[in-house]
Write a structure and sequence with these properties.
By secondary structure, the chain is mostly beta strands. The chain is built from 1 helix and 26 strands.
């Protein structure tokens, strides 16, 4: 009887001593990112607020264009599709991909050749490329009870032609790439506020003065398709360069790197001299295969002859924007478990 009592008491005492260690160990491993706190976290500057009269959106403007002019990006946020119509200097939106373009509505117009839109579900960021600005929009309701998008904030003097924006949920950060200065602008917001803050500017010095159209975040790694005829792999949290993968001059004008199943896909706009006749879409098993010429040209799956641009993923389907090919501005496609490109369809 005494033995049982002593063992139990000793065990309970041991557990009390170990509890702090157990709880500490549950937090071991990579630290989970938290929302930005302007009271405790450093930042460079906060956004400039825009005073906008929502009553001007009681009649939502329809898209006046029956076709797209160099669309660069398509994405879906919640139940709404967005197309960045670059050469029409606008972003349009709609609830489906079957309505004709003239039935889509205008989210933002009068922009300077925008390229991408990114959202965390609360704020929507658009790169106003030629104006070196990031426009921030939020969803509201007009007097007719319709959902509308209104400009609420902006960041001016964002590098040299900001060209690509990604929201990374793991770090709760918007990454905004300045396409010709080799700089990345990090924008964050508090958990209970839509107000954004510029918290950091990172750089890849070798890309300063080089036209770089995009980047790709994969776990804790970031990749840059470089106009220096190489792909740069760096640490996401420091931008310290880990590796550099050379590519042939024929694919120097890369647009985007996308990892799909077992392959690395590259869309290419020009060769090293800027010749768009080299525009194509290729894939390789590994990035190191590119310099060896061990890659496959898959642009024939999309007719070919145009200039493929950005690839985005919505649910289980990929979307490719393209220009120089009338009637084929946006494609959808899938890749099955055998790495076969299937269900290739022209959307617009």
């Amino acid at each position: 009887m005494n033995y049982t009592y002593n063992f139990t008491a000793g065990f309970c005492h041991l557990m009390i001593l170990l509890l702090p260690v157990i709880f500490l160990c549950t937090g071991c491993g990579k630290k989970e990112a938290t929302y930005f706190n302007p009271d405790t976290d450093p930042y460079i500057r906060e956004s400039d607020r825009i005073d906008f009269d929502i009553s001007t959106l009681n009649a939502i403007p329809d898209n006046p264009n029956p076709t797209l002019s160099v669309p660069t990006y398509i994405t879906k946020v919640k139940d709404t599709y967005f197309i960045v119509d670059c050469y029409h200097n606008q972003v349009i939106y709609n609830e489906n991909l079957t309505d004709p373009l003239y039935e889509w509505r205008i989210m933002a117009s009068g922009l300077g050749m925008p390229h991408t839109l990114a959202s965390d579900g609360f704020v929507y960021l658009i790169d106003d490329t030629e104006n070196n600005r990031v426009l921030v929009m939020e969803e509201g309701v007009n007097e007719n009870g319709q959902s509308v998008f209104l400009p609420t904030q902006e960041f001016t003097e964002i590098g040299d032609r900001p060209h690509y924006i990604v929201y990374d949920e793991k770090t709760k950060t918007f990454y905004v790439w300045s396409s010709e200065s080799g700089e990345m602008y990090l924008l964050r917001r508090p958990a209970d506020d839509t107000g954004l803050y510029l918290t950091e500017v990172r750089s890849i010095p070798s890309l300063n003065g080089v036209y770089v159209r995009s980047f790709t975040i994969e776990d804790d790694t970031i990749y840059f398709v470089s106009g220096n005829s190489s792909i740069i792999e760096a640490e996401l949290d420091t931008f310290k360069v880990r590796k550099e993968y050379p590519v042939p001059d024929s694919m120097s004008g890369m647009v985007q790197l996308t990892f799909i199943r077992d392959y690395c896909y590259l869309t290419i706009s020009t060769d090293a001299t800027g010749n768009q006749e080299y525009a194509t879409m290729i894939r390789a098993r590994k990035l190191s295969d590119l310099a060896k010429g061990s890659y496959e040209d898959v642009y024939a799956s999309f007719v070919g002859g145009g200039t493929p641009y950005y690839i985005s993923r919505i649910d289980d389907t990929y979307y490719l924007t393209e220009h120089r090919l009338p009637g084929h501005s946006i494609w959808s496609f899938q890749v099955n478990d055998k790495n076969e490109i299937t269900n290739v369809t022209t959307i617009y």
